[in-house]
Amino acid sequence: MFTNSVGLFYYGETGLPNTSIYHGLSFLTHKFMEDYFLEIGETVLNRSLAEVKLCNDSLIRSYPTPQLTEHVSIIDSLPAMIIRINTQHPNHLAFTPILSGSDKVNDYIINWSTTEKILYYARKNHLVRNDRRNYPVWTGVSSYPPGEYSETGIDYLLKMPLILDENIVLPGKINVYLEKQAFILIIVADGKNEVSQIRNQLFRQLDLEILKKNLQIEGIRKI
User: Fold this and answer.
1) What is the extent of the structural domain holding 169?
2) Phi, psi angle pair for 212, to nearest 5°
């Protein structure tokens, strides 16, 4: 489990899909993302084939075919998770978040911002934070380099090598050309504007890391 100072935590399997009701990306007691698919070309990455390294501050999966690493971490003072993908073989990358608790897409508001390049989603029964449901409303998924959105149909699940709960929704996927390095950012916040502001703040930090290589994004903790 990886956690941070603002209540966000990620709990999941290292070499398998997330299957427990406790797995996923959560803020305090509310889950915002069950799991995710990563595709390279037309192939979904199979975690059981990856060599896994669990560090104090991150989870690293190294896939032999294709030669690719997936680096998962939580930002400490911001409600955000970052997945960094590195490869020596350029290809098309797709990221698909998996939402649990319902199999009805109509239970969600799902928006793709063509200008911001952010995939937003929120449960329709929780559009305002209140005393009874004191947790963020919106989740935003974005990429660096900025990606494009495409929908996913029911038949999309047929090619997935993962065991999934039946009560899931796939809000769509973000497609990126992976030249050497790409970042996927998952952010939770009360409003879309706040999601966008956090994303832009992370983009500025990622730009510095890409240019200077040795600059850390920010400290994170493992418990």
Assistant:
1) 2-222
2) -105, -10
